[in-house]
Fold this protein.
Amino acid sequence: EVVLTQSPATLSLSPGERATLSCRASQSVSTYLAWYQQKPGQAPRLLIYDASNRATGIPARFSGSGSGTDFTLTISSLEPEDFAVYYCQQRSYWLTFGGGTKVEIK
Amino acid sequence: HVQLQQSGPGLVKPSQTLSLTCAISGDSVSSNSAAWNWIRQSPSRGLEWLGRTYYRSKWYNDYAVSVTSRITISADTSKNQLSLQVNSVTPEDTAVYYCARENGYSSGQYYFDYWGQGTLVTVSS
């Protein structure tokens, strides 16, 4: 099983600041990695697929990068609606999710 | 616009069978380009993929190793819906259960682009 480790567990930032979230895989997943956003009481929402492609309707302030074992989700300037939990997910070998990073208001 | 509407009981007794359905609108459960999944989420296990069913000239199923002996995912084409059964449940199966569509992208990989609303299932006597 491919283990995805996300860091930090919690990120405390203010609106307008830049958020940088990390996802590290226990073995290479090529670029077969997605990022999801989840708000309380809601299902996850696809943000980024294939490591760096924005899903339909996702604002340009969200960007993804990386390949192999190290991936990054960047939110260039946090909007109030961006405070949520973010998960990475790999589809290279079966399917696993990371443990999540909570982006909270500082 | 794809919508997934889940239904099923929120309370199941230990050792019994958990059964959920997911009604699909805006797409077909028999689609040749999608896969239909069940995922659960709990504080102790996080997001856990359970399995999928999909149609590519015939029906296929994939199940997570952790639940493969207890789980059945099936499609009802007449009702255009997806079903999940988990046998012999224990309190560790308490979670929010989601159905989700996997859609194919340019890389040839599949990701979850539509989700059901989630159903909290509690296993307790």
Q: What stands out?
A: The CA atoms of residues 69 and 79 of chain B lie 26 Å apart. Chain B is about 0% helix and 60% strand. Chain B has a mean pLDDT of 96. The two ends of chain B are 39 Å apart (CA to CA).
